[in-house]
Amino acid sequence: MSDRLSALRQAVERILPEVEGLVALKQGPAGILAPHLYQPSQATELELLALWPKYPVPDTIKMLQKAHPGAKLAVVCRGCEERGLVEMAKHAQIDLANVQLIGLQCTAEEATFCRCAKPFTVHATVTVGEKIEGAADPLTEAFLAKSQEERLAFWKEQFLHCIKCYGCRNICPQCFCNVCALEDGTWVETGRLPMPLPPMYHLVRAMHMTAKCVACRECEETCPAGIPMAIQFRLMARDVQEMFGYETGAVIEQKPPQLLVLEEGEYAKTGLPH
Amino acid sequence: MADPKIIGFLCNWCSYRGADTAGMARMKYPPHVKIVRVPCSGRISPELVLRTFREGADGVMVLGCHIGDCHYNTGNHRTAKRMPMLKKLLEYTGIDPRRLYINWVSAAEGEKFASVITEFTETMRSLPPMSEVMQAEVMQSEVMR
């Protein structure tokens, strides 16, 4: 058992009696990991506590709160999952007041694997592991260096492989609308492969991820075609921060810009004419 | 490109009246912009713009009331927030962001309307057609149902 895992187990064992349930990953048969609800009455299950590969937990919390409103929960979350929970709370999907966050800081290898700029939690009061600096994102930087024609050629090539399985939408902790624009035949044509251009599915999704994407990279992980779509989301997130000073998951009280009217000085940054 | 296909989404309260003003003053401007009147420029969602491109438009214009003059108080704030982001997305997709044009034209600004249309049509003339950029054979037969 690694040091980090035993440290996490100690933290979990300390907190488990105080709550009704605790969500963390569990080692299943055949090396498969899945989120699991650990309960104080079955503390022996903690033998199977696991860390990696990560799997998004915010959706599990939403499911649990829907079935058991007001239940006192705790959750082991990484930086990205914490951001996911914060953003879901902002959009009234979960109630953060009843959730105790146990932060799990990522290691340098994990951050490099995810090309993560913020592999640490900021709101969790209990944390496990060393806080490290963010890793570089060579893929996005390489994309930025491309010319306009090269960018289009890059995406044409990537989206050619898309089989429109909707996996990226299904795994996304920020895709929670009851009525999804991607299922609407007005915007996204169904049953055509390869996808006609411009790729409505990906562009509409990228637009909907603006000021919402928490950079967890689960979409890329789940994609059977290996499309690096997070490049677009991350670049858009950079622009949102520049224009509206909004960073997902950073401040719990800060409302997302799409819910607000323009504020003093914001208009100048949008680059629109006067 | 001699005859660019341009769709202009004009807000009913300012820009559409601005077009009327330009027409009544007999101002001359290129005829390539097909005008769609909408209740508010905030009505124009990014999906709508993207589908317009998908259907083969070379350029899309969104014209609304000046900030602060919106008939619905803050409708055009949505335009001001969403459209610059969409321009960025087009840029990151490899589509020329100049193909999407946003400006504010009030009911009295007939002259500005004519100059905005002329300017945008000229820009579109300098760019290759969208169908060429997006592989012509994929674009043509596949108009959405």
Task: List SSEs of chain A in N-to-C order.
Answer: HEEHEHEHEHHHHHHH
CATH architecture annotation name of chain B: 3-Layer(aba) Sandwich
Task: Give the number of domains of chain A.
Answer: 2
Q: What is Rg of chain A?
A: 20 Å
Overall pLDDT score of chain A: 87
The total tally of domains of chain B equals 1
The low-confidence runs of chain A, each spanning 5 or more residues with pLDDT under 50, are none
Radius of gyration of chain B: 15 Å
Strand order of the largest sheet of chain A: 2-1-3-4-5
**What is the 3D shape of chain B?**
globular
Helix content bin of chain B:
40-55%
Q: Estimate the helix proportion of chain A, in percent.
A: 25-40%
Structural class call of chain B reads alpha/beta
CATH class type of chain B: Alpha Beta
Number of helical runs of chain B?
6
Order of helices and strands of chain B: EHEHEHEHHH
Total beta strand runs of chain A: 5
Distance between the ends of chain A: 62 Å
Can you put this structure into words, describing what you see?
The complex is a heterodimer of chains A (274) and B (145). Helices cover 36% and strands 10% of the residues of chain A. The termini of chain A are far apart. Chain A has helices at residues 3-15, 58-67, 79-90, 108-114, 138-144, 148-160, 167-171, 200-208, 218-222, 230-244, 266-269; strands spanning 21-27, 33-38, 73-77, 99-104, 126-128. With 274 residues, chain A is of the alpha/beta class. The model of chain A has no long low-confidence stretch (mean pLDDT 87). Chain A has two domains: 3-128, no CATH class; 138-269, no CATH class. The radius of gyration of chain A is 20 Å and the shape is globular. Chain A has eleven helices and five strands. Chain B has 145 residues and is of the alpha/beta class. Chain B has one domain: Rossmann fold (3-Layer(aba) Sandwich), CATH 3.40.50. Chain B has six helices and four strands. Chain B has helices at residues 15-24, 46-54, 75-93, 110-126, 130-133, 136-140; strands at 6-11, 33-38, 59-64, 100-104. A four-stranded parallel beta sheet of chain B has the order 2-1-3-4, sandwiched between helices. Chain B is globular. Residues 136-145 of chain B have low confidence and may be disordered. The chains are: A alpha/beta (274), B alpha/beta (145). Chains A and B meet through helix 6, helix 8 and helix 10 of A and helix 2, helix 3 and strand 4 of B.
